[in-house]
Write a structure and sequence with these properties.
The complex is a heterodimer of chains A (about 60) and B (about 200). Chain A contains three helices and no strands. By secondary structure, chain A is an all-alpha fold. Chain A has a domain of about 30 residues. Chain B is built from ten helices and no strands. Classes of the chains: A mainly alpha (about 60), B mainly alpha (about 200). Chains A and B meet through helix 1, helix 2 and helix 3 of A and helix 1 and helix 10 of B.
Chain lengths: ~60, ~200
């Protein structure tokens, strides 16, 4: 019973995950692309430009 | 969240289907994981360097011992060491990548606190991972091994703190995940309590 509940909760977490973080973005991430869903600070550290359209990482 | 939970299910199915095979060829699997981690280490952003793969392994490792007796628990517990070592290989890659970034971009001394907690968790993880390899485990005394592996709770705590302090969109997911672990751990401890023999009823 305990195992079943945990399994169910994990499935629910996966379901919520798919709603919040679409499969397309997840697949993009696996292939190495950075998306808005998986916007990562490592991009900034690595010096990736946001094209001047985003205020995510304002430059002083 | 999708990726982490998706990977958890993939590893789970992998263990259920190939548990004996994983045990038998564990050294080959470690080798494959090292090669994959090393190749991906050379890239900037990917699922290994961001720590998702390592975490997905550790979620299974964490929850395995909290499950009720049965085939699933038996299979997961049987491959727990292998899952932990594979998770450690990918987590080490994640830790090293960020450490190198910290030195490359000179922010090591002014990094956010979760960065240092992440480094601390990798430091705690290393002896646990090394002693999880069967060849090394066999050279240790059972009591010493058990004592050392109590550190895994410290490791889980550090990982949870690291993830929660990042405070990203997945904050609530991590709260639920580690909250669930605490509940299941406590339940497992309660169920493990030895049942006291009934006191003999004194007949007057």
């Amino acid at each position: 019973m305990k195992n079943l509940i945990l399994g169910l909760l994990f499935v629910i977490l996966l379901g919520i995950g798919i709603v919040r973080e679409p499969m397309k973005d997840t697949a993009d991430l696996i292939t190495g692309a950075s998306t808005e869903t998986y916007a990562t600070k490592i991009d900034l550290i690595a010096g990736v430009s946001e094209g001047g359209y985003s205020n995510s990482y304002p430059v002083d | 969240m999708t990726l982490i939970m998706g990977l958890v299910f993939v590893w789970f199915i992998f263990v259920i289907l190939f548990s004996k095979w994983i045990r038998k060829f564990n050294l080959y699997l470690y080798g494959i994981c090292i090669v994959i981690a090393a190749i991906l280490f050379t890239q900037e952003t990917n699922i290994v360097n961001m720590g998702y793969v390592g975490l997905s392994f550790f979620i299974l490792v964490m929850f395995a011992s909290t499950l009720s007796q049965g085939t699933i628990r038996k299979k997961l517990m049987g491959n727990r060491a292998e899952l932990a070592v594979m998770g450690s290989i990918f987590s080490l890659s994640h830790g090293l990548k960020y450490l190198i970034f910290a030195f490359d971009f000179t922010f090591f001394w002014r990094a956010p606190i979760y960065f240092y907690i992440g480094i601390a968790s990798v430091v705690v993880m290393l002896p646990l991972a090394i002693t999880s390899i069967m060849i090394i485990r066999k050279k240790m005394k059972g009591k010493d091994w058990k004592k050392l592996h109590k550190l895994s709770y410290l490791f889980y705590g550090l990982v949870a703190t690291h993830l929660l302090l990042i405070n990203n969109e997945r904050f609530l997911f991590y709260v639920i995940l580690f909250g669930l672990y605490v509940i299941y751990r406590v339940l497992a401890l309660i169920q493990k309590q030895p049942i006291k023999p009934k006191e003999k009823i004194k007949i007057a």
